[in-house]
Amino acid sequence: MISFRGIRISQKTSWTKQDVAGRQPDRLLWLGGLYEKAKECVAHERWEEALGYLEQIALAEPQYRDTPALAGQVWGQVRLKRAYDQGIRCLRTGDIQGAVRYLSLVVEENPAYRDAQRKLQAAQRQAQLVKLYRRGLSYYTRGRWQEAIETFTMVLAIEPGHPHALPLLEDSRFRLRLDMLYASALRMLQEGRWQAAAETLGEIQ
User: Fold this and answer.
1) What are phi and psi of 34, to 5 degrees?
2) Is there a contact between 31 and 60 (Cβ–Cβ < 8 Å)?
3) Residue 154 and residue 103: Cα distance in Å, rounded?
4) How far is the CA of 56 from the CAs of 35, 67, 131, 180, in angstroms?
5) CA-CA distance, 172 to 181, in Å (whole number)?
6) Fewer Cβ neighbours under 10 Å: the N or C end of the chain?
7) What pLDDT score was predicted for residue 7?
């Protein structure tokens, strides 16, 4: 496992010193071939593949040409790719907080990386929706109709087609109206306005 700004990301190293040892007879030719393959992969942004070649070179000759600097560049791209891929996986599986976390790392490191900025904004928007919807649901279950109405209205302002917010908003409005009618009827009864109270209670039924 490797750590990218506090987040652990899976790292797979395929090559060992034992693997490299068998290549020693043609060492310089072999190293040159690996180096050229690594450079080609870098040119085509095949970062994981390039890293594999550079790992082999580092095991045999850590200071070969500019391998240390090249490896640093490639490793930075590999970390970005892995964090980005993890963020996309989180989006697909509904782990919105995970998506925000990983994609934020990518954008902080390189704001222009692929479509990370757009994906992060979508994840943040979704996280805001989830937070608002849960808050509205909490108000709804506690019978706090006015707060529920205000919160579900905010949800629908962000996502008009939200599948659950609209029916809950309509039901909250209905229940608030019933509570207001009932309170009004009670007040009329206390004032001795029997007919008006009866008509109001009739609206509730």
Assistant:
1) -65, -40
2) yes
3) 25
4) 10, 11, 48, 76
5) 14
6) C
7) 45
Angstrom distance (rounded) from CA 198 to CA 205: 11
Beta bridge partners of 3: 8
SS3 state at 7: strand
> Pairing mode, if any, of strands 2-4 and 7-9?
antiparallel
Tokens encoding 78: 């590999």
DSSP-derived secondary structure letter, 66: T
Sign of CA dihedral 153, 154, 159, 162: negative
pLDDT in tens, 23-76: 555 788 888 999 999 999 999 989 999 999 999 988 888 888 999 999 999 999
Q: Is this model's pTM higher than 0.70 or not? A: no
Q: Which residue is associated with the tokens 């043609």?
A: 26
